[in-house]
Amino acid sequence: MTARRWCQEGRQRWPRIKLSEQQLAEFAGEEIADERGLDVFLACACGLGDAEAVAVFRARFDRHIRAIAGRVDPSPEFVDEVHQQLIERLLVSDVNAPPRISSYSGRGELLAFVRAATSRCALNLARTRRRRREISEVDDAVASPADDPEILYLKQHYREQFREAFAAAAAELEPSERMVLRFSVSEQLSIDHIARVLQVHRATAARRVARARERLAEKTQAQLRALLGIEHSELESVLRLVHSQVDVSVQRLLRDEGQ
Questions:
Q1: Inter-helix orientation angle 110-142/37-47, to 10°
Q2: 149-157 and 232-244 are packed helices; what angle lies between their axes, rounded to 10 degrees?
Q3: Spacing of C-alpha 177 from chain mean position
Q4: What's the average model confidence in pLDDT over 245-254?
Q5: pLDDT of 134-144, one tens digit each?
Q6: Could you tell me the CA-to-CA distances from 144 to 8, 23, 149 in Å, in that order?
Q7: In the chain, what are the domain boundaries?
């Protein structure tokens, strides 16, 4: 069906939406698939900022957006944030680009397009929130009031370098070393429990845990030496800090290991 015909159909369905045949043709071409015509008409009007079209869009899709977001995280705050972000991304233009709904081609249902966009938005927000929590946990440890002034200064001064060094060091560990660290630190299993899981004597399990911790500390120290280029007198304090932060860093870096 032609753009002219779908413009007429759209006006009959939503008489308050203002959209010309030329605008619709420029958006979707002269020929529009019969089963997608009203979807294309609505998307085009939304992309052009028609207030009535936006109201129709919200009435049709708000509940779907909230339902999909709720499957990722059912908390009202999360659902509201996904909804707000998605509406802004789909329906609001910026100085560099039109609203993202303008990319709707009519190849599938508009509902499927909205569902896919919602899923991406919700998953991205969930990852961002998880990352914020991880950083917050490390920052809490970095600012621990129990530290002496020297260690506190080092934590604050070299915070980003520590994160980078620990991440690089953890990546260099053997899978078996990361596994025992996860058991010991992240999951807080006892040596006896770890021994049963690994089917080794408890003394062997204890040595493996201690060796993995030492290897992580050694590799982190090596990374820091390369990153910081600090004097030997300050290096001793930095090395003490590395040992003090092993458990915090293991919890952050290996939390999802083995899942």
A1: 50
A2: 90
A3: 27
A4: 55
A5: 555 444 444 44
A6: 67, 60, 11
A7: 3-129, 143-253
